[in-house]
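Amino Acid Chain and Its Fold in Token Form
===========================================
Purpose: to set a sequence beside its fold so the mapping can be learned.
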Amino acid sequence: MLVSVTHSLNYWFGSMLMTPSGILLNNEMDDFDVTPGDLNQEMARKRPLSSMVPTVVIHSKRDCLQRMCIGGTNGTKIPASIVQTLVNLLVKQDDLATAIEAPKLFCNSNSCTLENFSQAAEVAKAITDKHKLPVTIVDEKISTVGVILKLNSTVDGYIENSSYGKSIVY
């Protein structure tokens, strides 16, 4: 059995409130947008839109062949990082460490952010030339991705070296 769990405190110690039982309360309220008419506008009984994507992948033809849990950090950058890592693993067939540590790219409608690597300047120029979006090259990770992969009878876990977390396999 695989389980993918995502939680969000939204900043260290969340809202800085704790229940009597010791559970830290999150700070998802800051995900709301105060702009009237925005999709994430505050409203009674409304939950803010979220970018959390705890994901379980199962082989389409043979359930016992390959199973995977994958998750990431950093809000709106999570979906792009998850997809890029899945492409590295399932299409390019990279090993876990290579797939997860590969530089990531995040774009929104206004700009792109690219993790620094040897050809980052060339990639940034190509994006700017073709899509007319400014690209910022950063030295820090855009998102930290973790994976637990079961392949046949072998189970392996990996999380990016920049992470404070760990992949746990039982």
